[in-house]
Amino acid sequence: MCARYTLTAEEKELIKKQGYTLRGEYQPDPNIAITDVGFIVTSDEPDIVQRMHFGIVPPDADSKKVDFSSFNIRSEEVLEKPTFEPLLRQRKTCLVLADGFYETEKLGEDKRPWRFVTERKIFAFAGMWSEWIDENGEPYRTYAIFTCKANKTVGEIHDKGRMPVILHKIDEKKWLNKKISLDELLSLCEPYPDNKMNRYRVSKKALAVSTKAKPNKGMDLLEEVKDEPRQENLFGLEEPKTIPQENKAPAKKKQPKNKRPLPPTGNLFD
Question: What is its EC number (predicted)?
Answer without folding.
Answer: 3.4.-.-
